[in-house]
Amino acid sequence: MRDLASEVGMEAASLYNHIKSKEEILNEICFSLANTYSDKMDEVYPSDNTPIEKVKKLIALHIQINSMSSPLATVMNDEWRHLTEPCKSQFLDMRKRYEYLFTEIIQQGVKRGEIKAVDPRIALYTLLSSVRWLQHWYHANRDLDVNDIKENIMEMFLTGLVADQYEWKP
Amino acid sequence: MRDLASEVGMEAASLYNHIKSKEEILNEICFSLANTYSDKMDEVYPSDNTPIEKVKKLIALHIQINSMSSPLATVMNDEWRHLTEPCKSQFLDMRKRYEYLFTEIIQQGVKRGEIKAVDPRIALYTLLSSVRWLQHWYHANRDLDVNDIKENIMEMFLTGLVADQYEWKP
DNA sequence: ATTTAAAACTAACATTCGTTAGTTTTAAAT
DNA sequence: ATTTAAAACTAACGAATGTTAGTTTTAAAT
């Protein structure tokens, strides 16, 4: 709290005119971002896009948040474990629901023959964590455009690294 | 240190008969894993495998470590920032070299027409962070076999999520 | 049985941490 | 000019942290 206070030009004790506790800040950050993700899911899931389009829209949000709001993303991604009950359970419930709907989208894609028959859980977790590097990297290396990064990552995920004409299988 | 001591059935002070400091533990963990990665790179990079085979071998190690040694992986991945100089610089130099050689492999793959013309840095970071979820997830959900996970992830990265026959581009 | 070295213990240290109590300053409203 | 409420301050608290000093226990070697 002392570091945080000095960052905004205050004494640590003065912070408590504005916040209730250190924990409140953690709650604020975690649930603010969790709501952003949930809201997007509630918009995308029932829409009439194809499953692949839905995945793209959701991943785009993850890329957006991890690169543009990276300090917040870092807190939510790495520090949610320190939420206290009942907030922690509430947070985990939100995450569980988000992940469930996300796997549903993937499974629908598989069923419709648009997405390969991968394990939806593995695909989901791989997808979600693959954009995490942006949260640590983007602030230091601003020479790349977010949209370029987005397209590169999407391309990687959707059609893979192997060049189209190359026959790689053993 | 008190938690750690009680975990091994000791008083905190007794730990200091075995270690020099808390920091020493951090160094030990970080450099032990960093060496494992570096050694693998020194074995794989000069080998006569194709670039894609090299990438597969390296990613396999990341999956192995993140799933089987997940507490160590978590410390190295998340806590290396707390290394003190000169260890921190040394660690970062090792990482830089590792990442450089990894992008070289990718670039060779691109040059040889085996790998799509993605940005090698983006591909690298996406690849490396995409397997991080295993470090948090594997211990709790042991119903999946590491080798199954390995193959699923490889398939995703190499040939993408989009089903072969599906025409997805807008 | 005695010695000895490793490894446990107890007690305490100096810091750091989040927070509270009480007081003073700031600045807008009367 | 006076009042008032917001927001800063100083001082200090109790708890937790990594660590050290000094002592006792453990167990193998003599």
Automatic annotation (TrEMBL), chains A, B:
Occurrences of domain HTH-type transcriptional repressor KstR2 C-terminal (ranges): 49-161
Pfam annotation, one family: TetR_C_24
Matching Gene3D superfamilies: Homeodomain-like, Tetracycline Repressor, domain 2
InterPro entries: Homeodomain-like_sf (IPR009057), HTH-type_TetR-like_transc_reg (IPR050109), KstR2_TetR_C (IPR041490), Tet_transcr_reg_TetR-rel_C_sf (IPR036271)
Superkingdom assignment: Bacteria
GO terms for MF: DNA-binding transcription factor activity; transcription cis-regulatory region binding
Keywords, alphabetical: DNA-binding, Repressor, Transcription, Transcription regulation
UniProt protein name: Transcriptional regulator, TetR family
Organism: Reichenbachiella agariperforans
